[in-house]
Each structure stands twice: as C-alpha cells, then as structure tokens.
Design brief:
Elements (H helix, E strand, L loop, with lengths): L1 H35 L3 E6 L5 H22 L5 H23 L3 E10 L2 E2 L4 E2 L2 E10 L6 E7 L17 H8 L3 H20 L10 E2 L14
Parallel strand pairs: 1-5
Antiparallel strand pairs: 1-6, 2-5, 2-7, 3-4
Helix pairs in contact: 1-5, 2-3
C-alpha cells in the first residue's frame, strides 16, 4: 500500500498534464479556426524555380494585390471577400497569365499552411481558405500571405479593423515567449490531429471550394 500511495502524486500529475494538453489543444484549435474564418490567404505557385519564373511569381503577386485592394474594400467580412474573389476568378486568371506569360489557374481552396512570420505579424499553422494561383506547371517555390484583410499591403502598425478584432491583432503581432508558446501549442495540436487521422486514404491536398462566379459579376482593371 505504501508503494501504491507513492503512485498517486505521479498519477495525478500525469492526469493533470493530459488535461492541460487537451484543453490547450482545444483552445489552440478553436483560436486558429476563428482566425482563419476572418481572413483569406493568398497563395501563388511559380511554374518552376528558375529565376525568370520566380520573378514572374512575384510580379503576379504584386499585381494581384494592387488590383484586389480597392475591390475588397467593399467586403464587410471574410465571407463577403470570398464572394468578391469567386466572381473575380476568371479575370484573375487572365491577369496572372498575362503578367507571367504562361498559363494560370485561379481558385478558392481550403489548404494547410505552416506557421509563417511576415515581419510585422505572424500567422499560426492550420487550414485557411486561400486565393490560390498556380502558374504554368506549378512546380516552383510558392509565396503566401493574406489578401483579406490586406495585411500584406499594410505599412506600419496593424490595427483592429473590419474582420480582425483586438484579440486577433494581439495574437498575430505579439513577440516573445508568450507568442511562441501559443503558436507552438497550435502546431502540436495540428500534429496530434493529423496523427489521429493517419488512417485516411491519402494526404490532404488543397480542396477547391465549390461555386462559380455569378453572372455579370466580377471587376475590371482600372
């Protein structure tokens, strides 16, 4: 019995650790999902890793961000932004193909992103809806950021506005150990969920979101 008594603290500590991991994971998963619901990522995939194709990728990125900035100002939230982007897909394909000098495929897709720092802000790993533009064969290095809200076009301090509240801005802009721990927990939880789903038949690929442009909708380059 004495030996059994010595196990109780260990068991309690183990149970507390498991509860902490589960609760932290649930918080992390919900927090990332809430953040993902409030933005649309931009994902541009180059035709190849040649210098010319990589330069074309960046040229497409710049032109897409410039063109979409005024159009997305009309969106009240991420859902509205997705509607605007869906209507704009044919025009964006033409724009990307013209800029890159190759074929282009534009779609709205749900895909997994790693944790990424963009200097003034960082985003946790997880699934996000993205405007995905694939140039040519799409065999080169890619570039990703955020198209809505226009975080990648913001100079200076990021402030709460539109889709992002104070808590969202604090989460993605804070530095230091606290920020690193929160994002690390999100990564751990994502890895744990992937391990639970390891019996799936194949790795998850970018999943295009159903829907097509509304007749007569879209935008023209000014």
């Amino acid at each position: 019995m004495r030996g059994r008594d010595r196990l109780y603290p260990l068991e309690a500590a183990g149970l507390a650790a498991v509860c902490f991991v589960l609760l932290s994971g649930l918080w992390a998963g919900k927090r990332q999902e809430r953040l993902a619901d409030r933005m649309v990522r931009l994902h541009v995939v180059a035709a190849s890793d040649s210098a010319a194709d990589q330069a074309a990728k960046l040229a497409v990125r710049d032109r897409v961000l410039d063109i979409l900035a005024p159009a997305l100002e009309e969106a009240e939230d991420a859902a509205g932004a997705r509607e605007i982007l869906r209507d704009a897909l044919p025009a964006l394909e033409e724009l990307a193909a013209e800029t890159a000098g190759t074929t282009a495929r534009a779609s709205l897709a749900r895909e997994s992103f790693p944790t990424r720092s963009y200097g003034s802000f960082s985003l946790p790993a997880g699934e996000y809806v993205s405007l995905r533009i694939v140039l040519g064969e799409g065999a080169g290095r890619n570039w990703w950021c955020v198209v809505y809200p226009p975080l990648c076009a913001v100079a200076g301090e990021i402030r709460p506005a539109g889709a992002l509240g104070k808590d969202d801005v604090r989460l993605i802009t804070e530095d230091g150990a606290g920020y690193e721990l929160r994002f690390r927990v999100m990564e751990w939880w994502g890895a744990l969920r992937s391990a639970w789903e390891k019996d799936e038949p194949a790795p998850r690929e970018p999943e295009e979101i159903a829907g097509s442009p509304r007749p007569g909708a879209g935008f023209r380059e000014s």
